[in-house]
Design brief:
With 258 residues, the chain is of the alpha/beta class. The protein has two domains: 126 residues, Trna Endonuclease, Chain: A, domain 1; 92 residues, no CATH class. 41% of the residues lie in helices and 16% in strands. Strand 3, helix 3 and strand 4 form a beta-alpha-beta unit. The longest helix is centred in the C-terminal third of the chain and has 25 residues. The two termini are 35 Å apart.
């Protein structure tokens, strides 16, 4: 949060996709906010000011294998709605998938003010830092040093911020089912493996993009506008039939897919 406020390019990179304006950014940690009889203390608050208007988001983070807690995120959504904030941002090692939210929250449709729920992976934070340090540059040497120190910390083996690292509880049973030819279409464990495979591929794209300085994206072989859940169910059936996981990625500036 501190580096986001001190290095404008970095803060802008991490919040632009969430609807934040380009403006002066302030960040705060562990601000106590009233919530019934038990005040809540989100990990952070991000505030961006532009032309006299404020954009504010609450931030909740998790490291290592710790999962986001639905009741905690729900409380922050309720607080943000009451206080007129624009967003709640969750940050963890997990990678969000289209059409498959990491945390289910209840949205009160009666409220005029709507709060958006967004997710960042630590792998995305590392990716944006790499892009600025190695390929695009920042305003001055002090900002570059700050970013480099942050990147060094995030990549340390004890930081707990390494992104997606676990294929889940279904991984071993599915592998055994493929070896034994006992894995059947419609098995929910195969779908779980497909979802985690997609997360892994997205993280590979982020890491490769950070190294190359190019946009790297997974190729999805599906009609535009199709339901991601249906596409994943079809891939799970293919996994049961063929016993293989496949992925294609597109690297900007190259003639074909990898």
């Amino acid at each position: 949060l501190s580096v986001m406020a001190q290095v404008p390019e970095f803060g802008r990179r991490l919040t632009a996709g969430f609807g934040a304006p380009a403006g002066r950014m302030e960040t705060f940690t562990e601000v106590t906010l009233p919530h019934g009889e038990s005040p809540r203390r989100p990990d952070g608050v991000v505030r961006v000011e532009r032309a006299g208007k404020l954009w504010t988001a609450l931030v909740e983070t998790k490291t290592n294998g710790n999962a986001l807690k639905p009741d905690q995120v729900q409380a922050y959504m309720d607080i943000a709605a009451r206080r007129g904030y624009e967003a709640v941002i969750t940050l963890s090692n997990d990678v969000a998938l289209d059409g498959s939210p990491l945390v289910d929250v209840r949205i009160d449709g009666r409220r005029k003010h709507k709060v958006a729920l967004w997710h960042l992976s630590w792998a995305e934070v590392v990716h944006q830092a790499q892009m600025l340090i190695r390929h695009e540059g920042v305003g001055n040497a002090a900002h570059a040093w700050l970013l480099q120190e942050l990147l060094h910390y995030l990549q340390h083996e004890n930081s707990g911020c390494h992104g997606f690292q676990n294929m889940g509880a279904a991984w071993v049973p599915v592998r055994r089912g493929i070896d034994d030819e006992t894995l059947c279409q419609g098995d929910a464990r195969a779908l779980e493996v497909i979802e985690n495979w997609e997360r892994l591929v997205r993280q590979v794209c982020l890491r490769l993009g950070g190294e190359l300085g190019q946009k790297v994206l997974p190729v999805q072989r599906a009609r535009r506008g199709s339901d991601p859940g249906v596409r994943r169910a079809e891939l799970a059936d293919h996994l049961c039939e063929q016993g293989r996981l496949n992925a294609e990625i597109r690297i900007e500036g190259t003639p074909g897919v990898l």
